[in-house]
Design goal:
It is built from 8 helices and 12 strands. By secondary structure, it is an alpha/beta fold. The structure holds adenosine-5'-diphosphate (ADP) and magnesium ion. The site of magnesium ion has 4 residues, from helix 1.
């Protein structure tokens, strides 16, 4: 599903931030990426999603397609979605309109009454399963939302758009206990449906629960340790001592 081989990423005006990494995610797998701040995790995820400030060199394939040849929109339509560490706010763009537009685009449907009704049904279900109050979606996108609300909106999008591969950047940071439980159960459902995730997290409670197939520790743009959760727990302890 996702094949990264000897992948380098740099900013338009920077030297390499990600330096030759290998990651291979298959359908139904969660891979976890750990590492101290500034190691390049967010840069990697942004580049994969198509952020225009980053350039990739080496191999980055998604479902056999060369990612750098696809626009961010095409990547999303192919099934790749980024959940932000710091979700942006957009004043003047109603969350409802944004979700509707993306939903219609993803399904290649027209903006007619029948389709809007289908969208409304889907949205209602998704709102229920992530516990987002309906009045939030009639406000500007994330504008003056609390940190926790913004994170729940990211989960709402996971639920609504069901990406084949979710790139999840520290969505657990800033979640309350209840929302963390929700994240854990949503991730399990996500994988059960045959979808995958590349999960950046420092939260061992989440990791213990989702049982990633593979865990990587990243430092200064390189993957310095790879293994199952137990191997990485030992490395993590050693490196925190
Ligand atoms: N567009 C950019 N321009 C300059 N430096 C950047 C840019 N993007 C990321 N960096 C730098 O790259 C390093 C890795 O950042 P980041 O990917 O956010 O790390 P992490 O998510 O692991 O904390 C940091 O030193 C950051 O300041
Ligand atoms: Mg980051």
């Amino acid at each position: 599903m996702l094949r990264l081989e000897n992948l380098y990423v740099r900013g338009k005006d920077t030297s390499y931030i990600v330096k030759g990494i290998h990651i291979h995610v298959k359908p139904g797998e969660i891979h976890a990426l750990l590492g101290p701040n500034g190691s390049g995790k967010t840069t990697l995820l942004n580049a994969l999603a198509g952020h225009p400030n980053y350039l990739m060199e080496g191999t980055a394939l998604f479902n056999g397609k060369v990612l750098s040849k696809l626009t961010p929109e095409k990547r999303f339509k192919e099934g790749l979605m980024l959940l932000f560490q710091q979700p942006p706010s957009i004043e003047g763009l109603r969350l409802y309109d944004f979700l509707k537009m993306v939903w219609l685009t993803q399904k290649e449907l027209d903006d007619d009454i029948k389709n809007i009704r289908l969208f409304n049904n889907d949205l209602k279900k998704a709102l229920g399963s992530v516990g987002v109050k309906e009045d939030l979606i009639y406000r500007s996108f994330n504008d003056k939302f609390s940190g926790g609300e913004k994170k729940r909106i990211e989960l709402l999008q996971l639920e609504l758009f069901k990406p084949k591969l979710a790139l999840i950047d520290e969505v657990d940071a800033g979640l309350d206990v209840q929302a963390l439980e929700l994240l854990k159960s949503r991730l399990k459902e996500h994988v059960k449906a045959g979808n995958s995730a590349l999960l950046v997290t420092h939260n061992f409670d989440v990791l213990n629960h989702v049982k990633p197939s593979r865990v990587y520790i990243m430092l200064s743009g390189k993957i310095i340790e790879t293994g199952d959760l137990e191997v990485v727990k030992r490395a993590h302890r050693a490196w925190n001592d």
